[in-house]
Amino acid sequence: MKVIIPLAGKGSRMRPHTHTKPKALLPVAGKPAIEHILEQTEALKPTEYIFITGHLKDVIEDYIAENHDFKATFIEQKKMDGTASAINLARKHMDEAVLIVFNDTLFRTDLTKLVTSKDDGIIWAQEVEDYQRFGVIVVDENNHITKIVEKPNEPISKLANIGLYYIKNYELLKEALEKVCSGEAGKAGEYWLTDAFEYMIEHDAKMKVLPVDGWYDTGKPETTLESNAKLLKHEIRTAPQESVIHEPVFIGDDCEIENCVIGPNVTIMKNCTIKNAVLSNCIVDENTIIENITLSDSIIGCNTTLEGTHKEKKASVLLGDHGVTRLH
């Protein structure tokens, strides 16, 4: 089995953080977001990872080379023309079953079920109330897909497609991708992977739908903070001095935490200095300094300094990398 992970998007909803760092490398619950995906998929022992890159592609390539020793192939998507187009770039590498994982959302599920699957493919889904925001899946009595509808106006289904797919019948997927991407583009000039799945279903593919145990959005700041809170496990590698900790909290290596109230739902990456501060529901990237401030619902980039005038100074901010901010 091979794993395909599309990473080409600019992550515009996560700016300013994605100006200098790919969205997949932004920290969530104590580690880069992509590590949550790799931890689950590496257990399947894939023969190859295929990363579809674009924005800041060199940063992704360097990170994978420095932190992992699995076989990795990087393919640049030069034109942002849809999810089918992204996966189609890997078509010539599809010589066995593939697991496709979009990095906008993190997930928790038992992927070992795919090993014994007799179906042509598996699509993981979760019930949602705001179904109009998603591509939704209609299933039959055996939980096989009958159709996929993008952002429906009518409540034909509340099963949202979360962006996690296992395709055993890779030859039919390749045929479907070629057909979709050689045809007329859809809305906004994009080719959709769901259209390829529709083609497969029309050609008698049995596509099973399975639920996930958890689904965590990292597409925008507010949902990233929510996902950070849900995924956090209490882990402190540096003993804070004269401070109060409200779990769950992650504090990385070589941090200096002094006279603070930290938590709940706070990630602080390595080599940070936090003094005389109160932090709740925050993500702080590495090598950052925060002093004399009460901070909530904030994401702070790496190598950044944020200073207030006293501990009671309250703020909620989104600061990118390599900045200096002083609040008076």
What are the key terms here?
twelve-stranded parallel β-sheet; 328 residues; UDP N-Acetylglucosamine Acyltransferase, domain 1; alpha/beta; 34% strand; seven-stranded mixed β-sheet
The CATH superfamily of the largest domain turns out to be: Spore Coat Polysaccharide Biosynthesis Protein SpsA, Chain A
Number of strands: 25
| CATH architectural group of the largest domain | Alpha-Beta Complex
Instruction: Assign a percent range to the helix content.
Output: 10-25%
Q: CATH topology of the largest domain, what is it called?
A: Spore Coat Polysaccharide Biosynthesis Protein SpsA, Chain A
**CATH class category label of the largest domain:** Alpha Beta
What's the Cα radius of gyration?
A: 21 Å
Number of helices: 6
**Number of structurally distinct domains:** 2
The largest sheet is: 12 strands, parallel
Strand content: 25-35%
Question: If you average the pLDDT, what whole number results?
Answer: 90
Distance between the termini: 56 Å
